[in-house]
Description:
The complex is a heterodimer of chains A (127) and B (377).
Chain A: H1 2-21, H2 23-58, H3 63-88, H4 92-126
Helix pairs in contact in A: 1-2, 2-3, 3-4
Chain B: H1 2-21, H2 32-48, H3 51-59, H4 67-71, H5 75-113, H6 119-159, H7 161-172, H8 179-216, H9 223-251, H10 261-273, H11 278-283, H12 285-294, H13 298-334, H14 338-376
Helix pairs in contact in B: 5-6, 5-13, 6-8, 6-13, 6-14, 7-8, 7-14, 8-9, 8-14, 9-14, 12-14, 13-14
Amino acid sequence: MVKLILLTLTGLICIVLLKNLKPEFALLLKIGVLLFVLFYLLDGVRQATQELLGLAQTSGLDFSLLKLLLKALGVCITAQLAANVCKDCGENALATGMEMAGRIAVLIMSLPIATELIKISLGWMQT
Amino acid sequence: MKMKHKRKLFTIFLLFFLLFQFAVPSFAIDASGESENTRNAFSELYNELSPKIKEELSKIGLENANYEELLKLSPKRIFAEFLNLILGKMTEPLKALGLLCGVMLLASIADAFIHSDSAVQNIFSIFTSLFALLCILNPISASITAAFSSMQVSSAFLFSYIPIFSSVLLLNGKMLASGTYSSMMLLLSNLLGVLNTKLFYPLVECILLLNISSAIQDKYTFKGIADFIKKAITVILAFFSTIFSGLLAIKGNLALAGDSVAMRGVKLIIGTAVPVVGGSLSEACSSILGSLALMKGALGFLGVLVIAVIHLPAILDLFLWNLALSFSSAVADALGQKQIKTLLDGFASTISLVNTMLIFTVFLLIVSTGILLRFKD
Lengths: 127, 377
């Protein structure tokens, strides 16, 4: 974690310095630092996910649905992060587009759940 | 002197003559015939039961239509079976509770990462609400359907009382006496049985669906309509329970004598634990126990066992679901998940309503059986 904080702070100093000299490189550096942080965290996230899925398996919960929920959470966080980068660069339209993409992705993911719910409701109403 | 002696002898002789002439012959009744009748009636009643109920009865040791087996039932085995039933019914609500807590934790993690007013956050909230709904809708709908099936069985049973009761009244020749009162009681219980299955069941489905729609999106809320329907059902139930407890209190023909400390305790528990009709049920507690006292014979005991086997699993199931949902709602409140909390609160209140209806149906069945048995005597 200390390594990560030091890297982020170094990246921040570099970005601030580069902003006045070469703004286009500052943006690339910003994205680079963000990607590095994400990849650094990926291992931890994978471990946590495996623990959570193992816990779900032992308690007999639906494995595939929990996976879907975790995937949706990942999509939401990534889309928000990308939208924030776009907003930082002053590209509000792009940020909105990114948010929209995230929404649509989660909406598509929620379709099987919605279908299942509609099936249950219909079956229930027919009894 | 001799004359006096003769008179004394004559008086003694007369007394003995009268004593033997007008003596009431008395002898011990041969109980074997009556017990044989009870045995036959027991076997008949047992054979009429559905295979599922027979299977449940076999778990507590009543495996055949054997009268002796009933006498050998051990309370320890009944209690153990009751405990097994609770443990078995706990699995689904506990699973759902674990899953709901997991979903709510993930949703609160998402809240920490994503801005609360962003579009992505909104869609994720809807997604988690749908997910939470999927976790509970199937098992809860199964529990509610099972509860209404129990009510349907009771309703059919109550409906069969009307011709039996009419025959009993005709045989007793009590058409105009207390028959009117009892007929009214039976009619009311039948009416409520029909209302439960034909009117309340679709309305409960409506309440659930309206609560779901309100929880998933907050733009158009149907909570008011759901609350109105729930209130209407509550008012009807309260009205019926008031009439019932009132009639039982006026007549008091099934009430037990005295109001012991234990009875007061039971009344307090019923009054606080059962919503809507709890007050009326605690008032009519003496009558319910009076009805149970009328069923204390071997056949009556089998009847009580059958009523318990039909209704207890459904009552316990709904009670445990209510507990699990209320706890999950408290967790949702603590984690700031408003949408999921609204959803869980709606489900919990609906389940509580269905359980009230079921408990009230059991009350009607017991009291009606008591009325029928009283007239049979």
